[in-house]
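Sample intake sheet
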Amino acid sequence: MEESFSFLMQNLSLILLIALASNFFILHLRNQNRELFEIIGNEVLINRTHKLQFILASKKTIPIESVVKIEVHGNRLSLFQNTNNATDVWVHPKHLESEIDKAKNVFSHAVFLTVVANLAR
């Protein structure tokens, strides 16, 4: 009994590393084929997917009709709602164009703006 406890304590960091890697791998496989914008009735679920630049972003559901404006800033889509709330979605650059097209289909009533950064010095 004492030997097994000693073994666990000596290898605790390795055990934790294996558990975290396994969790990441399972989440990656589960989210691999998900769409970023998933329509559920009158709402859109913004999924965690490999298309996001920051994978740890949380899932969020917003009413479709509440989005009145979408601004594209580089690889960030800012979804502005009529309640003055905004949701930022950071999309991986290689998926940006296709996700902008999907957002235009989902939020067809919203105004789309592309904001170009002014880098004047």
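Comment: Helices lie at 2-10, 12-31, 96-106. The first strand starts at residue 37 and ends at 40.
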